[in-house]
# Entry
Amino acid sequence: MAVTGPRRVTVMGATGSVGRQTLDVIAQSGGRFVVEALVGGRDVDKLARAARASGARLAVVADPQGYAALGAALAGTGIEVAAGPEAVLDAAGRPAEIVVAAIVGAAGLASTLAAIRRGATVALANKETLVCAGSLVTAACAAHGGRLIPVDSEHSAIFQVFDRSQSDQVEKLILTASGGPFRTRSLADMARATPAEAVAHPNWSMGAKISVDSATMMNKGLEMIEAFHLFPVREDQIEVVVHPQSIVHSMVAYADGSVLAQLGTPDMRTPIAVALSWPQRMPLEGPRLDLRSNLSLTFEPADLERFPSLKLARDVLRAGGALPTVLNAANEVAVAAFLASRIGFLDIARVVEQTLARSTARAPSSIAEVEAIDAEARRGAEASLPTSGRAA
Ligand code: NAD
Ligand code: MG
# Structure
């Protein structure tokens, strides 16, 4: 194979959980990767530190108010500085072969599309992008030669064992779910759950939004929709099984009865390294799976009564149209309200269900239509937030 230089990487959401772990993988890569641009939401200090440490050419803070502070923090380094939503899009448009999409929520859609439209490889962590605009995003990939490589651990697992040359021999995808911090809790208990309890995930350390999504199991619902857009399967070929140890990251079942799985310790740096290096692999430090250590792997069905978000996502995946966009937007509003202690834990699924029930939107045929449906669903979700505070 021809010897090539380092691959340039831009990290969107560089100050978050996935973004920081991406920079750790790059730092360990022995020069395989160099950083083009780093984008953060509003934490200027973290962004400036990451830009210095990684030798980035450009640092962008999405919050326009952060411009002066970022400039001051990076004065004399030669690192370019910019701020605001336009600068975020410009960063995604810079010539980097790989763009890591690790902004949280539908806020990551525009920059992910900007990267796809210039034919970049997108290492996709930002699953909400595929939930709210899946068909449009995959169509943009086909039209512009962009490529999506999943970073989400379940989809990375499937990506590694999915035989694309024989996709007609795939019987089903089996997504594993940890069950989150409330896997064994009663509904009465969950009604009283605090934000601190909900974000305390047993196996993974992640950003607040995805941690709450794991507690409601909406995360697995979003991941079913994500899988539908990433792999050539029908909705009814996507299954979910609860696997509390988070060792088997997901599976593909074939028509001959074979089930192929990818295993590993719960460490996001592995799927990040897979996505950055694909189709090659790179060495990575970290704990190894030790199958002699009395490890037991257990599997159980998901309880749709205690985790209604999973059923809502399944219904929405089946129905299609505008509903996945509505589901995602309503969930973002409800999770933010829960994290701000404005609503109870069980209200999250109620708000999503009510917003879905009221939506009359039609399937979006452009990104502008996605944005309009998203905005309307956010207003609808805000209007259906219970006003009684924490009590569910
Ligand atoms: P996080 O909250 O830790 O980080 C989010 C990042 O996005 C931060 O850098 C923040 O500054 C930035 N951001 C937020 N709003 C922005 C905006 N409007 N414009 C620009 N930047 C903005 O979240 P995370 O846990 O790293 O998750 C990121 C994405 O990856 C989510 O979509 C999540 O579902 C997905 N994901 C995360 C994990 C994980 O282990 N954390 C695993 C699988 C998938
Ligand atoms: Mg996941």
